[in-house]
Write a structure and sequence with these properties.
heterodimer; A: 5-stranded mixed sheet; B: mainly beta; 4-stranded antiparallel sheet; 11 strands
């Protein structure tokens, strides 16, 4: 499985956009980019996924570079409730056991 | 409300005393799995199930058993718990193994003394 690299921590002011980068330089052509977050030992929560194109949903936007070697998750107007660890995961759609390989993630702190 | 529930949420037990952590989902999902989360090791998959009566080992299955007799339930059984199974456990489900979104339960914090 491809590995991802994320900064260990980031701060963001409440109301501002939070841009969380992820490097996945060894991603394969059939691998998707997924983002999950975990709020203080709660169960991880799916945010968004993409293959090649940029994606947007009610929670966030995902920007994937043209070479697919990196991506950025954007929370457009961060709130205090967005404080969490954010995980960038790359995985094929059909993978062994359906498991998600969570790395160390980025701890995002949204400050008033 | 669509959800994955786990019980108990917290459990302190002693070495060797059999226990079961229940997991139930109300979304008619075929795929379910169990993870454990430990500091510095991230989340690791213990077992998974692609459908009723179909289960298989994940990355760290030693010391655990599972069963899938009904679609909605996927209990995790520790026949003889040991202190190294002290961990935070999560159950997850999705419509199919290949679904984009997995839903996670709230977690069960287990301490084995």
């Amino acid at each position: 499985d491809a590995k991802t690299t994320q900064p260990p921590s980031m701060d963001c002011a409440e109301g501002r956009a939070a841009n969380l980068p992820c490097n996945h330089s060894t991603i394969s052509g059939n691998e998707y980019v997924y983002w999950y977050r975990q709020i203080h030992s709660q169960g991880p929560q799916y945010i968004i996924h993409g293959l090649k194109n940029n994606e947007t949903n009610e929670m966030a936007s995902l920007i994937i570079t043209e070479d697919r070697k990196s991506s950025t998750l954007i929370l457009p107007h961060a709130t205090l409730r967005d404080t969490a660890v954010y995980y960038c995961i790359v995985s094929p759609l059909y993978n062994q056991g359906g498991k998600l390989i969570f790395g160390q993630g980025t701890e995002l702190s949204v400050k008033p | 409300e669509a959800q994955v529930t786990q019980n108990p949420r917290y459990l302190i037990t002693v070495t060797g005393k059999k226990l079961t952590v229940t997991c139930s989902q109300n979304m008619n999902h075929e795929y379910m799995s169990w993870y454990r989360q430990d500091p510095g090791l991230g989340l690791r998959q213990i077992y998974y199930s692609m459908n009723v009566e179909v289960t298989d080992k994940g990355d760290v299955p030693e010391g655990y058993k599972v069963s899938r007799k009904e679609k909605r339930n996927f209990p995790l059984i520790l026949e003889s718990p040991s202190p190294n199974q002290t961990s935070l456990y999560f159950c997850a489900s999705s419509l199919y193994l290949s679904s984009y979104e997995q839903y996670f339960g709230p977690g069960t914090r287990l301490t084995v003394t």
